[in-house]
Sequence to fold (71 residues):
Amino acid sequence: MPRLLAIGKRRRHECRSGRSCYREAQAIGKEQAPMMNIAHSIDFMPMSRAVKGYKIHPMGTHIFYGVDIED
Fold:
């Protein structure tokens, strides 16, 4: 990451604009990234249409506060 650090040390007036330095830093970071996310899960919960107010929790737990079943 030496090139990325060099960009960070530049003064703002040395870049054509702040965005050009930022774009250059993003390209270098992407090129030299130590990891790459290649997959992620999509969570879904099959349930009856009568269940109202249930929301999927991002940690995988089930919280039933505010959940109701219509008759």
In short: The CA atoms of residues 17 and 37 lie 30 Å apart. The radius of gyration is 23 Å. The chain is about 30% helix and 5% strand. Strands lie at 51-52, 68-69.
